[in-house]
Amino acid sequence: MLQEMVFPLSWEKGNSRKGIKSQRMQQLAKLSSPINKEAFEERLEAHHRFLKEGGGGGTWQTLQVNGLVVAVYKKETKTNANQFSLEYGRLGTTLNFNGLVLPFINACAAYLPNLDAKEATLPFSLFTDCFLEKANFEKAQLQGLDFSRALLAEANFRNADLSNVDFEHCDLRGADFRGARIVGARFPGAQLEGVLI
User: Fold this and answer.
1) Which residues of 116-147 are buried (b: 16+ CB within 10 A; e: fewer)?
2) CA distance linking residue 85 with residue 185, whole number of Å
3) 175-197 burial, b for 16+ CB within 10 Å, e for fewer?
4) In this structure, what DSSP letter does residue 35 have?
5) At 63, is the secondary structure helix, strand, or coil?
6) How many angstroms separate the most distant Cα atoms in the chain?
7) 60 Cβ contact partners less than 8 Å away, ≥ 6 residues apart
8) Would you give the DSSP letter of residue 168?
9) Kind plus residue range of the DSSP H or E element containing 59
10) Which position has the higher pLDDT, 48 or 7?
11) Could you tell me the pTM of the whole model?
């Protein structure tokens, strides 16, 4: 009963996941070549140009194609800079998002276990169907982010701003929400066994 009071809409079933091949998406991302430091820094620089030239402020839509989820970003802009994307990708072992400012990024179906995103600013980004087991989002700014169907078991959200975050059908077993701000967040169909609040 306490969980239902703390986690809005957690008593609802959520939208159908029929046809979504979560294990296949995870496998594809896990088998992708990891992004190295040079490519990572190039993507960061391009994304900051994308934002500076008016690329922010758009909306996300996800589509299912043969059981695989893909992301579409909707915003008319004249920028030629590339938006940061990790869709079906993964980072090299020494790379992380710790303290980075990266709103509106695409991490759909990315393989990011143990991701260090402490104090990162990632609002309005897309992390649907992402593998984020044991990720660290402590003190992160995640307003409006979409985690739908993500694997977030034992993730750390301590003192994070989760305002209006979508956790529909997320695996949040053992996740730490102590001190987190969850105003407007939604949790239909989420697995919440053992969460810390």
Assistant:
1) bbbbbbbbbbbbbbbbbbebbbbbbbbbbbbb
2) 24
3) bbbeebbbeebbbbbbbbeebee
4) B
5) strand
6) 50
7) 71, 72, 73, 74, 106, 124, 126, 146
8) T
9) strand 59-65
10) 48
11) 0.92
User: Cβ of 13: how many Cβ atoms within 10 Å?
Assistant: 10
For 131-157, the pLDDT digits (tens) are 999 999 999 999 999 999 999 999 999
Token pair for 26: 């995870």
> What is the residue extent of each domain of the chain?
1-197
| Long-range Cβ pairs for the range 189-196 (8 Å, 24+) | 189/12, 189/13, 189/14, 189/15, 190/7, 190/10, 190/14, 192/3, 192/7, 192/10, 195/3, 195/7
Query: Among 54, 84, 59, which residue's Cα sits nearest to residue 73?
Result: 59
Inter-CA distances, 21 with 30, 58, 59, 68, 106, Å: 14, 27, 24, 6, 19
Q: Which residues have C-beta within 8 Å of that of residue 108, sequence separation ≥ 6?
A: 62, 69, 70, 71, 87, 88, 126, 127, 128, 129, 130
DSSP H helices, the chain, are: 2-6, 22-31, 37-52
Within 66-121, strands assigned E span: 68-74
Q: State both tokens at 101.
A: 């400012």
For residue range 28-81, list pLDDT tens digits in order: 999 999 999 999 999 999 999 999 999 999 999 999 999 999 999 998 877 888
Token readout for 27 is: 């496998």
